[in-house]
Amino acid sequence: MPNIKDVAKKANVSVATVSRVINHKGYVNIETRLLVEKAIKELKYIPNEFARSLFKKISKTIGVIFPHLSNSFYYNVLEGIEEFAFENGYKVMICNSNEDEEREEEYLNQFVKYNIDGIIIGSNSNILSRYKELNIPIVSIDRIIDEEIPSVSSDNVGGGYVAAKKLVENGCKNIIHFRGPSILLTVQDRTIGFNKCLDENNLTCDIVDLAFIDPESKLIRVCLENNPNIDGIFCDSDTIAAIVLSELNHMGKKVPDDVQVVGYDNIILSQLIIPKLSTVSQKMFEIGKEAMISLHTLMENGTLDDKHKLIPVELIERESTKSNNLTK
Amino acid sequence: MPNIKDVAKKANVSVATVSRVINHKGYVNIETRLLVEKAIKELKYIPNEFARSLFKKISKTIGVIFPHLSNSFYYNVLEGIEEFAFENGYKVMICNSNEDEEREEEYLNQFVKYNIDGIIIGSNSNILSRYKELNIPIVSIDRIIDEEIPSVSSDNVGGGYVAAKKLVENGCKNIIHFRGPSILLTVQDRTIGFNKCLDENNLTCDIVDLAFIDPESKLIRVCLENNPNIDGIFCDSDTIAAIVLSELNHMGKKVPDDVQVVGYDNIILSQLIIPKLSTVSQKMFEIGKEAMISLHTLMENGTLDDKHKLIPVELIERESTKSNNLTK
DNA sequence: TTGAAAGCGCTAACAT
DNA sequence: ATGTTAGCGCTTTCAA
C-alpha cells in the first residue's frame, strides 16, 4: 500500500502539496496538481482514513444499534439509513444488541474508540445517562427516550386510531384488540390511539397481550370462542392477524361478513393470505432515512429544530374489512 | 476525551507503562498496574482505536457487502455474521450495493481506506480482479466466484434434489417447477438438483421463470390452467408457493390430494397459510456464522483448509405434501 | 505557490 | 520493571 510519501516522491513534491490536492484545500498550481494526480493514479494511492481521522477526530461513520436484525421493521429501517448515509459519505457500523444492555454498553464503548460521529439507536434499554455522557449526536428510533434526544417514530397512536376508525365506521360493536407485549412503547401508543377512537364512539374493547415472536394461537382460539359475537378485531401484527384469520376459518366465521380484521405492518404475507388482509402500513425505509437526515443535521449544525419527527402510517384496505363507499 | 498521556501523568508513570497495562503486554509491577487502572477508571479513559490501528495496520472490523438488505436471506445471514464477529471482537460495517457495481467499487475503496481486515461478499457482481488485487481476506456467500476465494453456500443443488425426491416418492408424475430468475446461480443449482432427481426417475418437468420480488400471478395462473393434470409443483420461494396455493384454491384444486406443493425458504408465512406449506429450509444464520468463521481463520492464519463450505438444507414437511409413512 | 516540521494518540524497540 | 523515543500516515501552521 503506497502512502502519501510515496506519492510525493513520485511527483517530486512535498507531502503537504499532495495533501492539498487530495483535500482540495489551499493553493496549488494547476500543473503541480496534474502531476500529483498522475502519481496518485499510477500508484493507486488511497489515503489512509485512520491517519486522517486521528488528526481530524471525525470518522465519517455512524453506529446503529438495533435490538434485533432479523426483523422486518429493523432491516427496512436499516436500508433507509444506509441509503442516506451512503449519499453523504458516511459508513454505517451495525450492531445487534440482542436486547442485552451489557452488549449495548460494549458497542457504545466501541463507538467512542472509533470516533463514531453519530449514533442511531433503536433499542429498548434504559441507559439514558450513558447516552448523554457519551456526548455524541444521537437519534432514537420509534421511541422518545428523552426530550433532548431527537427521535423519529412511526405514528403508532395514529396507527391505532385509524384501525379503530375503520372498524367503527364499518359498524363493529364487539371488538377485540390482540396486541403485542404491553411493555413496548409502540404497543402502548397503538393502544392509546385505538382506545381514543373507541372512546369517542362510546365503545370499549377487550385487550389480549401476545408475544410478537411466535404468538400463542391457543390463547387466540380461546378468546375467540369465549366471545362468539365478536365482529371486529385489531391485531398488532400481520402475523397475529394471520393466525386469527386461520382460527376464524376453523370456527366457520366469515371474514369480513361476520368479523372484520385489521392487521399491522403490511408484510408480504398480508397480500397472500385469504382473504387479503387490511392492515396498517408503516414506512420503515422513510423512518430510517429521516433518522439519518436528523442525525446528519445534528452532526453538522450541533442542533436540530424538529426534534421529534412522526412518520405517518397508512391504512391499506383489502378484503378483511368491508369496503365502505359511503363515508370515503 | 483523555488520552494516554493524561493517564500517564495522573498515575505518575510513562505512556509506555500505560500502554503495557491496557494491552496486557510486557512486564509491569502489580502495584503500578493498579495505579494505572485506577487512573484509567477515574478519567474514563478509552484508548483511541485510530491511533492504534494506524500503527498496527489492522482495524478489527470486517466489511459486509450485500446486494440488498431488506431480504430475509441476507439479514438472517447478517445476524449470523454479527454474532460471531462480536464474539471475536470484530466490528461489522454493512454495505448495501443495491446490485450496483459502481457502488460496490466505492465500498471496496472505503474498505482499504479503513484498513478493513476482511470482507464478506454476497453480491452478484463480477469484479473478481478487483477483489484479488485488494489483497484482503475475503469470503463469498452463496456463490463460488473463484476457486481461490473461499465461500459458504447453502446447498442449493441438494435443496432442489430433496424437493424433487419428496414429490417423486409421493407419486407425482406431472411436475412444474416455478423458479426464480435463471441468471441467479442459486436458481440454476436448485434446477440442477431438481432435474437430477427427476432424471433418475425418468421424469421431466416444465420450468417457468419468475421474478423473486413480486412474482407475476397471472403467469402462474395461465400455466396452471394450461396444465390441468399437474400433480406436483416445486417453487423456488415460499412467496411464489403462496401465490400458487391461492391460484390452485381458485381453480378448485385440492392440496395435497390433487396437487402437491413444495416451497423454498421456510419463511414464517409458510406456517400461516392454509394448507401449511412443505418447504425447503435454508440455515441462514449458520451460513453467516460459518462465513465469519472462515473469514476469521483466513485472517488469522492466512489460509483455509476447507475452502468451500456447503451448508445443508432441510425439507420441512407440512400439509401441502402427502404424508408418507411407508418409505420413511 | 510550495516545503519543513510539529503533532494527532498510540505501540514497541531499545535503553536503563 | 519502567522510561525514552521514533514512527505509523496524515493535516496544517508557519516560513520561505
General description of the model:
Two copies of one chain form a homodimer. The first copy, chain A, is 46% helix and 16% strand. By secondary structure, chain A is an alpha/beta fold. The first copy, chain A, has three domains: 4-47, lambda repressor-like DNA-binding domains (434 Repressor (Amino-terminal Domain), Orthogonal Bundle), CATH 1.10.260; 61-154 and 285-311, Response regulator (Rossmann fold, 3-Layer(aba) Sandwich); 156-282, 3-Layer(aba) Sandwich (Rossmann fold). A six-stranded parallel β-sheet of chain A has the order 2-1-3-4-5-11, with helices on both faces. Chain A has a six-stranded mixed β-sheet with strand order 7-6-8-9-10-12, sandwiched between helices. Chain A starts with a helix and ends in a 12-residue tail after the last strand. The model of chain A has no long low-confidence stretch (mean pLDDT 92). At the A-B interface, helix 4, helix 5, strand 2, helix 6 and helix 11 of A face helix 4, helix 5, strand 2, helix 6 and helix 11 of B. Chain A binds a DNA duplex (16 and 16 nucleotides) through residues 3-5, 13-20, 23, 25-29, 32, 47-57.
Task: Supply the key terms.
3 domains; homodimer; 6-stranded parallel β-sheet; Rossmann fold; 434 Repressor (Amino-terminal Domain); 6-stranded mixed β-sheet; alpha/beta; 328 residues; DNA-binding; 46% helix; 13 helices; elongated
